[in-house]
Amino acid sequence: MKILVADDSRVMRQIVIRTLRQAGYDDHDIVEAEDGRDAYDKVRSESPDLVLSDWNMPNMTGLECLQALRGSGSSVPFGFVTSEGSAEMREKAADAGALFLIAKPFTEETFRENLEGVLA
């Protein structure tokens, strides 16, 4: 399976990837995107099985990316890994079609809890 990790911080992308591997998802192909626009384009070109996206990014936010994907007919599983996890953000994420929102700081257990059932 293929996972797309979108975050404007290269360091944060590496932390998310490392946490995925620690959570036991070390046999998946990882594709990186540096912002929402790049993530949108890579969903089209790479056909990932899951998108893990930051919320706040330049050019296109994670929420805008998700809305654009759903507007174009894409149903790729999509979750947020972001620094904020307010009830309002969780509601916006769910309304846009996100499966989950993981707030930082996170652990490999948090990843397992949210990805179980999404990645078999």
Automatic annotation (TrEMBL):
Residues 2-119 form the Response regulatory domain. SUPFAM superfamilies: CheY-like. It comes from Geodermatophilus normandii. Keywords: Phosphoprotein. Pfam families: Response_reg. One of its GO terms (biological process) is phosphorelay signal transduction system. The modification 4-aspartylphosphate is found at residue 54. This is Two-component system chemotaxis response regulator CheY. InterPro entries: CheY-like_superfamily, Sig_transdc_resp-reg_receiver, ST_Response_Regulator.
